[in-house]
Write a structure and sequence with these properties.
The chain is of the alpha+beta class. The protein folds into 2 domains: 122 residues, PAS domain (Beta-Lactamase); 78 residues, Winged helix-like DNA-binding domain superfamily/Winged helix DNA-binding domain (Arc Repressor Mutant, subunit A, Orthogonal Bundle), CATH 1.10.10.10. It contains 8 helices and 6 strands; from the N terminus they run αββαααββββαααα. The chain has a 6-stranded mixed β-sheet. A hairpin with a 4-residue loop joins strand 1 and strand 2. The radius of gyration is 19 Å and the shape is elongated.
Length: 222
């Protein structure tokens, strides 16, 4: 790629660029990718995906990266990162003699990165990074998602098999934890994250924030 094209690509507002080799070593990360994936104060360059994210994350991501390298075919990876819907196009880079094969990941949040009518193999992550929404328990996340999709509390109670007053308590706890009060705010946050009910059951990731593993939530049957 020419220097001019590379400068334009890595400087696009809101576009994260990562270059990773076949061993998972991060070789390049622009400011936007750093903000999307790792937070403003963490530089991943020189570290492997497993070093940064842990073995579960690496076990899911590395086969995708290696398949892109092996087949030469790009893949679109969809996931929730930092509480926002995120899509990354993973492209094989042109081989260079005596250099390990590598990929370039072009990432944006909150919008489609693939034009209508263009088809790529899609991989949906089975891990989730809820970002600020990680304060919600499993049940609270379910209620949060259903409220955000416009379901009335009475219908939510029936769907979840609990009393309406229990759902109202969850709703109150959600508002307190997130500092929000209106259904419109909840709907906006749910849409931004692209949340659906199955997301509540996904293993949660928060390693890039440098925090300890989240405590197991015990309210699934409440």
């Amino acid at each position: 790629m020419t220097n001019e094209f590379w400068t334009l690509l890595k400087s696009q507002p809101g576009v994260g660029i990562l270059i990773i080799d076949e061993d998972g070593l991060v070789l390049y990360c622009n400011k936007q990718a750093q903000k999307i994936y790792y937070g403003d104060n963490f530089n991943p360059v020189g570290k492997t995906i497993e070093d940064i994210e842990g073995p579960d994350f690496a076990a899911e991501r590395m086969p995708v990266i290696r398949q892109v390298i092996a087949t030469g075919q790009p893949v679109m990876l969809r996931h929730v990162r930092g509480g926002k819907w995120t899509e990354a196009m993973i492209w094989p880079m042109e081989p260079v003699p005596e250099r390990k094969p590598r990929i370039i990941s072009v990432t944006r949040q909150g919008c489609d990165v693939v034009e209508p009518g263009v088809e790529y193999r899609v991989v949906d992550s089975q891990l989730i990074d809820l970002g600020p929404l990680d304060v919600l328990t499993h049940r609270e996340l379910e209620v949060f998602t259903l409220v955000g999709h416009g379901m009335p509390l009475k219908a939510i109670a029936r769907e979840m098999g609990v009393a309406q007053r229990t759902v109202e308590r969850y709703r109150s706890d959600i508002s307190r934890k997130l500092g929000i009060s209106s259904i419109a705010e909840i709907a906006r946050m749910v849409q931004t994250a692209g949340l659906e009910i199955p997301h509540a059951d996904m293993p949660r990731l928060n390693r890039w924030r440098g925090e300890s593993n989240q405590e197991e939530h015990l309210d699934r049957s409440t």
